[in-house]
Specification:
mainly alpha, 0% strand, 73% helix
Length: 184
Amino acid sequence: MNELNPYAPTTEASESPSEFDNGAAKPKSRGQVIRRWTWVCGLAAAPSFVLGFMVTRGQVLGMLTGVAIFILLYSWADLRTSPMTWRQNQVVRRTLVTTYSIRILMTVVFPVGGYLDTISGFFAAATIGALTGTTIEQDEFGFGLTLLMTLVQGSYLNVVLFIIGLLLLPIIAVITRWRQRSTT
């Protein structure tokens, strides 16, 4: 490890299975990745979908299209970055899995998921209202506005997930190093 830059590439990276598991996990097929993100995004979107159905007065197609866009973006990003060295890092992998597991857990524990989705939905409605001049009380929720609202709300939720991931990363790094030291 480089003392000045702990993230500098070294020849030890591929030799240290505790930190990098190059080749340990088989690459996932495109179909497997899309199925995984369909499940994650579909489940995570459930509280927003219920709330959005009430707010948009049943504009299901706009919400489904927005969720499908997130599924495609996550799948593309996963397929594109999975062979990269930083994604092979055990700490990064654990952080990503933990972050999305927390999101799924918040969805299953409906009051927490509902609260987070409600707050982000209000922020999305305020943003859309400021941009378009519409309000939730108006009956103007067609496909386009519902899609835009879904994309903005999903983006806000992703910012929250990013912050959670950033907060978890050093904690998971410490736990991983502690586990590595306790096994050697």
